[in-house]
Amino acid sequence: QVQLVESGGGLVQAGGSLRLSCAASRRTDSHYAMGWFRQAPGKEREFVAGASWSGGTTTYADSVKGRFTISRDTRKNTVYLQMNSLKPEDTAAYYCAARSSYYSDSYYLSSYDYKYWGQGTQVTVSS
User: What is the dihedral of CA 2, 108, 118, 88, to 10 degrees?
Assistant: First the structure.
């Protein structure tokens, strides 16, 4: 069982930056792949970024590539999403997710692939 708690959301102007944190209740660097998703009002939850449990492999949605960075601090059992050059269309509730993975360099793109979820943190980007 893994509990995830996100933080770091807020209101920011377009072009600004935020760093989201996802604190896990247990070590996730061994056999837990991590992901960030977001959901805007009236829209389906969409993949944002993913990382393998080794940390050696990451992937991003095309809409955030080059602007967002996923990383993990294994000492703190925390995964981060650094978001730069924010746009109004990035406005959404952001969710952290985790799943066990046998393969050290695998990441997962679908929300159905993840078993554990945080409660979400709201990001609002004003124009």
Answer: 160
